[in-house]
Specification:
The protein has about 270 residues and is of the alpha+beta class. It has one domain (about 15-210): Alpha-Beta Plaits (2-Layer Sandwich). The protein contains eight helices and nine strands. It has helices spanning about 5-10, 35-55, 60, 90-100, 140-145, 150-155, 170-180, 215-220; strands spanning about 20-25, 65-70, 75-80, 115-125, 165-170, 190-200, 200-210, 255-260, 270. α2 packs across α4.
Length: about 270
């Protein structure tokens, strides 16, 4: 009777468990004095947890399977079935929690605390004991590439810092599994398709802003903020009423990025070569 071969010799490996992945990054963290950065680093997961409690989802924070800090941010892994809650109601609750805290922020902070948020889904190393190496894997890399991409950075750069506290980007897999499948109970029209290109990563993602303001209302989610096209520092514009929908230009990190379907004016924006 034949016996199964040892997987070490066949090249076959079992998949690690699937996890819903959430990471936040604080905008302009490094603009704060070094003596204040430890306080902010400790505060980031506190704000995240408080937002889950605000949304009535304290049980979800308690179910995180791994969690680790990134200095100016924090990442957690959750059982995949909890993914929809990370979109609704969590993103809006996070916006509200930051609004509340920023309204009574210390005078020594370098402006309000604002978060970029990335959400992804996939197989990730996870022992369940939050050990060194837990949370690693290709989809964790994608999670951070999305977080660092120009489209989501432009959302905060082109909005009123006292109004828009949260800008989110989610992977295509999350969009299809949670939004299009209606598990998140969020209209797909709240999400704007964008091309993300960071280092060797290229892919489609989707942008979501719970409370848009400034250029996001007057120029759209995908057009670079004022001044960015010429290389000058971007200055957030004052809030303005919507002006007929979103543009569809993306500032790619090297060369052109084409937008997908569902936009009003399919155009091409060629960003600066880097």
């Amino acid at each position: 009777m034949s016996t199964p071969q040892d997987p070490r010799y066949t090249g076959v490996s079992e998949l690690p468990p699937y996890r819903a992945l959430l990471v936040v990054d604080m905008k302009d963290y490094s603009g704060n004095a070094g003596r204040d950065q430890t306080e902010l680093t400790q505060l980031i997961p506190e704000v995240m947890e408080a937002a889950f409690e605000r949304a009535g989802l304290a049980r979800i924070w308690a179910r995180k399977t791994f969690h680790n800090g990134t200095g100016d941010g924090y990442a957690i892994g959750l059982p995949p079935e909890l993914l929809p809650h990370l979109l609704k109601p969590y993103l809006s609750a996070l916006q509200e929690e930051l609004e509340d805290r920023n309204s009574r922020r210390p005078h020594y902070w370098n402006g309000p605390m604002r978060f970029r948020v990335s959400v992804n889904l996939g197989p990730i190393a996870d022992s369940g004991a939050n050990q060194l190496g837990d949370g690693s894997g290709a989809e964790r890399v994608v999670l951070h590439r999305l977080l660092d991409s120009d489209p989501v950075r432009h959302l905060l750069a082109g909005s009123d810092p006292e109004v828009t506290q949260v800008a989110a980007i989610i992977s295509r897999r999350v969009y299809e599994d949670a939004v299009l499948a209606r598990f998140a109970d969020d209209p797909a029209s709240l999400y704007v398709e964008a091309g993300a290109e960071v280092k060797t990563y290229q892919g489609l993602a989707y942008l979501r802003v719970p409370k848009p303001s400034g250029d996001l209302l007057s120029r759209g989610f995908l057009k670079p903020p004022r001044g960015a096209e010429s290389g000058a520092p971007a200055t957030p514009a004052a809030p303005a009423p919507p002006s007929g929908g979103f543009g569809v230009q993306i500032n790619g990190s090297s060369g052109p990025i084409y937008t997908g379907s569902g936009t009003q004016n399919n155009t091409l924006y060629r960003g600066p070569e880097r």
